[in-house]
Structure formats: C-alpha cells, structure tokens
Amino acid sequence: MSRDTPFAPVALRAQALLGVAILVAVALAGCAGGIRTKSAPEATAMKLRDAAAKEARKWQADAVIVSATAMEVGLAAGEGAANPYAAQTRDESVGDGRSVSWMFGFSSASSGGKGLYVSIGANGILRATQELPKDFVQQMKPLDGWVIDSDAAARAIAAAEPTWTEMAAKRDATAMWHLSTLSGPAQWLATLSLSDSRRSLILTVDSKTGEARSFLGGFPTWRSGWANDTLTPAAGAITAKAKIDAPNHPVLFVGLRVTEPGAGGTLNLTVASPDGTTKLHRNVVVPPASGVAPGGAPNATLGAFTPAPGEWTFTVRSTTPTLQAYHLGWCAFGLPPPNPNPDDACFRAIR
After folding, report:
1. Containing H/E element for 138?
2. Which residue among 23, 53, 156, 211 has the highest number of C-beta atoms inside a 10 angstrom radius?
3. Do the domain assignments include residue 5?
4. Same structural domain, 183 and 267
C-alpha cells in the first residue's frame, strides 16, 4: 500500500499515521460543538463500535470498519486548548484506553473508493459524520478478527512499559489511540506524550493476541541509498534501482532534489514496486536559474508504507527539453545502525 508523504523523523512516523485521523477529528469536533470544562463519561472503542457501524450503514449498506481513533487529554494539557478536539477530550485518567468519544473510519466497495468517519460519544450518541474523498482510506483493510479492546491494549502496554503509567499520571499528558492496518497487520498504535514534548512513548498492541511492543521493535535496520545525475534533452529518462532485502520496514521514502541551477522545466519522479503493482508519480516544476536554491529540502517526495522486499525502481523524467542536475535519495526506515553515516539518506531525513 502506498501514500505520498513528506520526509519526517522515524520517531514521528507513528504520529504521522494518526495525523490525518486527528485532523478530521478536529473538523468533526467543530461540528459537534461544546468545549468540556471537566471530565465526562468515557468508553472503550468496542463499546461504541456497533453504534458507529449502524450510522455508517446509513451511508452505504456495505460499509466496513477500517479504523478506530481517540485522544485522551490530561486536565492540564486541555486547559485553554486551541484545538477543539483536544478541548473536548479532557480526561482525568489518561492512558487507560477509554475516551469521551471515538472516531471510526469506514470504507465501502460500492462507494467508488470513498470513506466515512463517524464520531460517537461515550454515551453512544452520534456527534458528527464526514464523508472522505475517493481513495482516502484505500490503504486500510477491514478490521477482521479484532478482539483486543482499547482498555485491554492499555493494560498490555502498562505491563510491558512501566513508564507508561508514570507518564500517564501527569496532568499534562496526552494519549492517542489508533487501530488500523496502516502500520502493518491490524494493531493498536498508542502514543503518550507530555505537553512540553520533553518525553514521549510509542507502542503497538496486536489486535488479536494483545502482544505489546515498542513501535520500532522487530523492525530491520534501515536501508538507504542515493544517486546524483543530470537529465539531458537526449536522455529522456534515468532509472535507479534500490534493493530492499527484508520485510517489515515501516515505510519507504524517496526524495528528488535539484542540485544545480538550470534552465527550468518539469521533472517527473516515479516509484515502482518489485511486482509493479504499486506505482507512485509526482511532478515537480523547476523554476529557472534565478529561482533555484540548490541544496536543502527535497523538491518532491514519495512514500510507500510497508514496502515489499525486492528491487524497487525509481525513474526520473523530464517533460520539457532541459538540462537539470538532481540528487535522488531513498530510505527504507527501520532501526538505525550503531554508527550511522552522516551522509546516509535515512540519517539526513531524521536529523
């Protein structure tokens, strides 16, 4: 499965998986209205799942659940919160897997690729719904066999990581819960952080077995590479190869960066999986010499979640007859090696 996404630190990748869901939650909170000033009744995800599914089937009869998301915001962290979703989810018992509302994602084969988010309060009452554009939830598979509820996931995490309970007791703690197949097999992805960002924890819990582990646990060492080349009018296209030799890399990133001022034009970056089933495209308009600042951040990036092992192909094309020098870097994220090379593509992406 794949998604266009920018470079970001590995430690923040888990937060990125939650980002889209939380952004939608903020929009739904604005529809629901009402900022809470004290703690309210809470519920686990499974307690509200059927109520959400009932609403989703009003949208499409074949709707299936693909995700569950919630926040728990400590009383101090929620005070004066500008984020309406955070302000509405203030919690006296952060980190226990129970929230004042849950947001569920649904997909439907008959909808032509569209999705739906349903926000349900702990009392089972519908708060808001929002239809999602085509292919918005295409990376999420149905949550078949989901048996571990959010509070059970919290207990598993607390048993595996004692620091979780200590941090969760802080009044400025915030926990986020997300269940989907975005980071691999269906699993809970849980993050716990303090308001000043001085500390954070990221763990996963298998939705079938209840096994808890560090988000990076079990991942292979990162793999990376790069190439510098120049497209000429005669070349048309230049291809680079990258071999990923192990499964379970959480994500593959490819970045294209112009390295020297040129005549300008349009470059196209294509990323293809070993079996050709995943193909990503991104066009980047390169301004003429006066507008180009060589170096710095990539001009274009593409990303694929859980890339399959094998030889991936990256192709750079020019859609206009121009001379353009570029740098192409790729990184299959994972655990860092003991002494990473400062010029390593993964190291440059996370520093």
Report:
1. none
2. 156
3. no
4. no
96 residue type, one letter? D
Distance in angstroms (rounded) separating the CA atoms of residues 218 and 279: 27
Span 266-275, average pLDDT: 85
Domain shared by 229 and 185, yes or no = no
Domain boundary (195, 214, 233) is at 214
Domain containing residue 339: CATH number: 2.60.120.380
d(CA 35, CA 195): 19
The four Cα atoms 187, 189, 190, 193 give a dihedral, to 10 degrees, of 170
Let me know whether 229 and 160 are in one domain.
no
**Is 11's pLDDT higher than 50?**
no
Confidence of residue 337 (pLDDT cuts 50, 70, 90): low
Kindly state whether residues 25 and 156 are assigned to the same domain.
yes
Q: What percent of the chain has pLDDT over 70?
A: 66
pTM of the model: 0.58
In a domain? residue 3: no
Evaluate if residue 164 carries a pLDDT over 50: yes
Q: Rounded CA gap, 311 and 307, in Å?
A: 10
Answer whether 284's CB lies under 8 Å from 271's CB.
Answer: no
Tell me the torsion sign for CA atoms 116, 122, 123, 128: negative
Helix (H, G, I), strand (E, B) or coil at 68: strand
Helix (H, G, I), strand (E, B) or coil at 313: strand
Q: Of 166, 195, 214, which closes a domain?
A: 214
